[in-house]
Amino acid sequence: MANPLKGQIEFDLAGKSYKARLTIESIVGIEQSLSMSLLKVAQKMSEGDVSITHIINILHPALRGGGNDLSMQQVMVLVDNAGIIEATTAVSQILGQTLNPKGESQDTKKSET
Predict the structure, then answer these.
(1) Residue 105: CB partners within 8 Å, gap ≥ 6?
(2) What's the rounded Cα separation, in Å, for the pair 112 and 66?
(3) Cα gap 55→62, rounded to integer Å
(4) Distance, CA of 39 to CA of 27 (rounded, Å)
(5) Is residue 83 left, alpha or beta, with left meaning phi > 0 and alpha meaning psi from -120 to 50?
């Protein structure tokens, strides 16, 4: 079972359950490899502007952070087997947990102030 207090999530991809987690180090690596902030990536995804490069470059370190010893090539095969929609959904869940770990909506935050 994933530990949300550590920023872990659990999701299914290509018929198998995986844990994932983005660490600060992996976030820095993603931002450097994609030449944009994680927030910008999430914004682009919400607009439907995402590439397979984005998916792979986020999924690989997230899966490794969740304790899965997968190479970049293995993640590419996993995405190929799962399909782009399923892989994109998994990355959206990972980004959602990373950027909003408590699951609070903006409306909830505003009503508390």
Answers:
(1) none
(2) 32
(3) 11
(4) 11
(5) left
Cβ–Cβ contacts within 10 Å for residue 12, how many? 12
36's CB contacts (< 8 A; 6+ apart) are 44
Closest CA to 91 of 113, 58, 48, 61: 58
Cβ-count burial 41-79 (b if 16+ within 10 Å, e if not): bbeebeeeebeeebbbbbbbbbbbbbebebeeeebbebb
Tens of pLDDT, residues 67-90: 999 999 999 999 999 999 999 999
What are the tens digits of pLDDT across the range 26-50?
999 999 999 999 999 999 999 989 9
Token pair belonging to 2: 């994933």
